[in-house]
Amino acid sequence: MTTVVRDPVTAADPAPEPPTSPAASPTRHRIRAAAGFAFGAALLFAVAPLVLSDFRLSLLAKYLCVAMVAVGIGLAWGRGGMLTLGQGVFFGLGGYAMAMHLKLADAGPGAMPDFMLLYGQLDELPLWWRPFASPWFALPATVLLPMAVAFVLGSLVFRRRVRGAYFAILSQALAAAMVILLIGQQGTTGGTNGLTDIQGFFGYDLDDPVNQRMVYFVIAGTLLALLAVARHLTQSRYGELLVAVRDSEERVRFLGYDPATVKLVAYVVAAGMAGLAGALFVPAVGIISPALIGIVPSIEFVIGVAIGGRATLLGPVLGAVAVAWARTALSERFPGTWTYLQGLLFVVVVAFLPGGLASLIGLVRRRDDDAARPGRFGRLRPRRREGTA
Amino acid sequence: MTSIRGRRILAGALTLVAVAAMAACGSKTTDGNTAAGVSADISGDTVKVGLLNSLSGTMAISEVTVRDSIMLAIEEINAAGGVLGKKIEPVGEDGASDWPTFAEKAEKLIREDRVAAVFGCWTSASRKAVKPVFEKNKALLFYPVQYEGLEQSPYIFYTGATTNQQIVPGLDYLKAQGATSLYLVGSDYVFPRTANKIIKAYAEANGMKVLGEDYAPLGSTEFGTITNKVKSSGADAVFNTLNGDSNVAFFKEYKSAGLTAASMPVVSVSIAEEEVKSIGTQYLEGQLTAWNYYQTTPGATNEKFVAAYKAKFGADKPTSDPMEAAYVSVHLWKAMVEKAGAFDVEKVRGAADGITFEAPEGLVTVDGATQHIAKTARVGKVGADGLITEVWNSGQPITPDPFLKSYPWAGGLS
């Protein structure tokens, strides 16, 4: 888990270390990363199921879904500098795609979902629902649909060099528009209620605690896989380029790269991760509704990442889980006043730990290192020697 | 390049672990081992009940009053010796005006706190979100708010009005007053949209014309366009299903457009005493509402309820229909438990049919088949003092009919 320290954290560290290229990356790092993943896997697959009750484990599953979105935001915002304030849209696309399939599977072949009979006054299933009856369409769609939307949007926006606040506002507008669309089409989307009462997950009965546990394991495994993807991307040459675009888009352009394409890749990958998170959220929680994908939840995704530390690999995950966990814990202990406490927590973290929770580990490590070998070079030199040996 | 291969192996291994975990843990058999109901914890001297209301977010203003009246009922019952000799211990959770949070908290109350029953929820969306949770865990929810009908869960008791106890009588009243055309204004969510569907079906069958139908997003304060459309339509009356803050903006706009209760009355189904206070009496005076209870409803039981509520929460606090329905729901649960002689959910449900309670709104009776309650419908007029006075009532409690099966014009609705 200690690899995070090496990553440049712009907000916390005004003079980031020059990023080391993968070729120079020493073996120790690889071992550390592997050990970190093994530790994370042990924590998620062995410790959590043993320690937590069925109910708490299902809550953790929900937190981990939020963490998946956070991994994507960490990539697009932390690495790429794109303030994605509309990830709810992609989360929603993935969630609705999955929920539509599960609702149709619950209803049985040829039948219509319960809410359509209630609100829709339809004689048959709307055309755009039909493909979702097939898992071979619905499952890939949970990831590919958000990616396609992100691709179209990103191509238009990045080529026109829309960035900064304008990009953030555009993302927000998209989230608002999607919510209005879903609520307006109550007969075919469930309106404000969303899609609820999901019974089964590919033949597994979701009421069964054993199957809920299975859903948790799938989610935990997926999160680790997404972390591996994110690490791979950030360590690659592409990752270096992405950081370069974030820090100075014009210079990258003059070097002969197209910053729009570089940003587009990160944005599309982040959208895919959010879509996957939404898809897995549905069996874990049993509901997807416009309340989960609008402006407020979209901002909450970003808050988690900011709290955790946006430019690190693990920071967004830690932040997302910590924020979601704090929300549950505080609201259970202080049902009347928890919102104030949560606000206070955000202010304290942003004020005193601008680099997020992940920078806490960094602070501790730096202190250790400084005590042993003061100075920046003192820290880097032995690693280089090791790498070339 | 060893590092990349290493990572690939790692990723592969992770996928394998996930798949293995999935295969090892999944169980396709659904017989027997599905989540059996978690039985309530009644080992101590107390019995826990859950209070699930929004204490934060947009719905807090309404839902906190519901929580207060639930607390009042619990206090009364405890003072009188409790239920089956056990004192009621309330466990509060904040639904935070967020539907998935309602589901999470419902599950927590049932599984972690092991409550005997849960009281609360306001919006239909929150009820729809928790419904599967209560059905899965075979636990009880008492839902105290008027709603759009078309629902009947074996694990929910609906103590607010369904459509045939509020909206349909409201329309009957307008028809009797000679209204032949309506304009529909509502917030953009499930209740108004479904209510308007029913209103349109009613209008068609009763020779009334619906001249327009407009929706504003929840919380919207832009009503210039809608008010102009309402005015130019020349409808005999407006049926208003707006919720919350939007009403403030709508009625201000309505008044400034020169429309009055005399020229074009508005019948509202989501404006009770609490909301009248926040909208401002000057905008609402003379307008109509449809409910089952008003603070002014005559009777000694109501006088006692109003006095007890004001003594506990402040003399300036009005009582309203959803608060009364929530208060009644706790007393009904107590009566059911005592008739059943147990806290067991199935036994309580079995004992429900025919339970009566002398409520502030008058005598209410639980209908076991639908798990709704028979209530008297009342149309009221907002007075200058901010209170609502009854101008018409149905004379006797109306049997709940959530799917409007006894109304021929509603055939195509469900």
UniProtKB/TrEMBL annotation, chain A:
Topology within the bilayer: Multi-pass membrane protein
Hydrolase as UniProt keyword: no
Pfam family, one: BPD_transp_2
CDD domains membership: TM_PBP1_LivM_like
Region (Disordered): 1-26
InterPro entries: ABC_transp_permease (IPR001851), ABC_transptr_urea_perm_UrtC (IPR017778), LivM-like (IPR043428)
Transmembrane segments: 31-52, 59-77, 136-158, 165-184, 214-233, 254-274, 280-299, 311-328, 340-364
PANTHER family listed in its UniProt record: HIGH-AFFINITY BRANCHED-CHAIN AMINO ACID TRANSPORT SYSTEM PERMEASE, SLR1201 PROTEIN
Protein name: Urea ABC transporter permease subunit UrtC
Key words, A-Z: Cell membrane, Membrane, Transmembrane, Transmembrane helix
UniProt source species: Micromonospora lutea
Lineage of source species: Bacteria, Bacillati, Actinomycetota, Actinomycetes, Micromonosporales
Predominant location category: membrane
Protein location: Cell membrane
TrEMBL record, chain B:
Key words, A-Z: Signal
Signal peptide: 1-23
Domain of life: Bacteria
SUPFAM superfamilies: Periplasmic binding protein-like I (SSF53822)
Record carries keyword NAD: no
One Pfam family here: Peripla_BP_5
NCBIfam families: urea_ABC_UrtA (TIGR03407)
Name of the protein described by the UniProt record: Urea ABC transporter substrate-binding protein
